[in-house]
Amino acid sequence: MDAELRHRFLAYLKAMGIGSWKYYKNAASVFLRWLSSKNLSLPEVTPTLINQYLCFRKSSKLEPATHFYPIRTFFRYAVQAGIVHQDPTTGVFCSWLDVPGGYPAYQGVLRQLLRRPAAILKYRLPLFTPDLEMYVKHLLDQGYSKRNLCGVLHYNFYFHRYLARRGIERLMQITPDHVEAYQRRRLRHPGKHDPRCSDKTIRNTQGYIEGFLRYAFDRRGRHFRPPPPTPNPSVLPNRLVEDYLDFCRIHKGLKASTREDQQEELRRLGLFLTSRGLREIQKVALLDLDAYCLERSGRPNAQQKSVSVLRSFLRYLYLEGILPHDWAKHIHSPCRFHADTRPKYLPWNKIQDLLAAVDRSDVAGKRNYAILALLACHGLRAREAAGLKIADIEWADNSFLLRERKNGATTRLPLSPQARQALQEYIAVRPVCPAPEVFLTAYAPIKPLGKSLFAVAHRLTYKHLGRLLPHQGAYVLRHSFAKVMLDRGASLSEIGTLLGHTSLHSTFTYTRIATEDMREVADNYAGLLSPEGQP
């Protein structure tokens, strides 16, 4: 700003009675320097340029009007002085900086959720714009309800206020520590507009906030939280693990899901060996393997699977000449007693009570009832029920096809009337989704239920059966189905076919579940031996 223009603008400010004339003069100087950096003159200024400048000066600490009013005053003077012919600030809405034309021109996603302009303006947060609106649109496209989206806006609004008061000026400055500190503050000092800080509210708040932050950081190629640790590549090279998994696929015939479980177990092994300071797998000792088995100790069934993977991998390394010793023969599975391996079951009337107790008033209830009906009436594994497709059900001949069971076979089974009715009721109200699987998630994002089906079945059985539920959880439905088939005179080969067993050895375990029947025979045996039932 040249000296003559500066003196005339100062005289104008003093004539208008503006006490903070120094601030107005400095604001005008900053604007003119910005204009000069773009090689523009005052007559070339348009409302769009004013919007761009205010966006450039936008801050999470100051209101937009703080920068707008000095510029508007300067251009009013410029019009009176004849420097410009019209005031470009008349077409600027300082509340809608990044939307030239203001609210009438705004067509963002918030207009689909909120009616009043003031409500929309409330959630156009300086620190989170435009990421928050993009995140809301992303959730809306996935089918999330308006209630969930309003929760995202509500909780992130108060989190934004918390960050602004602590001087956070950029989105990339936010860390997980800020989220945890905000949660602790809400527990100590719940706000007037905050709901009661129950455990569920705290979980929902963290989910809404971290979901948005993960999305915003991912857009920039960053991680909001550090990724899970990975083992040292020199201990378990990726190429070595891939070769072992190929060996399991070709020579052992393991399915993809089993190989994924083995890969996860080997990842844990690599992390453990890395934590013990090992540099390469060739230097592993039996003491390291014993320590790993001790760390992975738990229920015998889970420990047996872990030890089995470890033993198979060590044997492969020895056969390939990577290990000098066959450590696999020194790794033993945990002891399991016959009483522990005997399948646990419930009487069939209890299973029917479980099915009758399911609330079928909504889509989720109909889905849950259909899941339990399939597991109980056909003894399916959770993975088999999750993989069932609509095209696999033949309504005309009351049958359905199970593809790639655990034994690798494809089996067509008859469809029981109870399961048929349950499936028809659910499919009639099933959410619209291009996925071919029958069972979908009840809430957005709508997708196949997948591995979550076991958790759904376990939650329902535990909710309605309570203490009657054995430790196998939802697997009690499969065992109860086998017990009913055994009581009705089915042979072991027939039961094995229905359950999808590879060999009869697996089916033989169900011969141990008739202990109650044997106890009844023992109680009546004395009466059968005595003449005419007299002692």
Could you name the key traits of this structure?
DNA polymerase, domain 1; 55% helix; mainly alpha; 24 helices; 3 strands; 535 residues; 4 domains; 3-stranded antiparallel sheet
Structure description:
- There is one protein chain.
- By secondary structure, the protein is mainly α.
- It has four domains: 3-91, Tyrosine recombinase, N-terminal domain (DNA polymerase, domain 1), CATH 1.10.150; 107-219; 238-336, Orthogonal Bundle (DNA polymerase, domain 1); 348-517, hpI Integrase, Chain A, CATH 1.10.443.10.
- Helices cover 55% and strands 2% of the residues.
- A three-stranded antiparallel beta sheet has the order 1-2-3, with no helix packed on it.
- Helix 17 (363-378) packs across helix 21 (476-487).
Topology:
Layout (H helix, E strand, L loop, with lengths): L2 H13 L5 H17 L9 H10 L8 H16 L29 H4 L3 H6 L8 H11 L4 H20 L10 H13 L10 H21 L18 H14 L4 H20 L10 H10 L4 H20 L18 H4 L6 H10 L5 H16 L3 H5 L6 E2 L4 E4 L8 E4 L2 H13 L22 H14 L10 H12 L4 H8 L4 H4 L7 H15 L6
Antiparallel strand pairs: 1-2, 2-3
Helix pairs in contact: 1-2, 2-4, 7-8, 8-10, 9-10, 11-12, 12-14, 17-19, 17-21
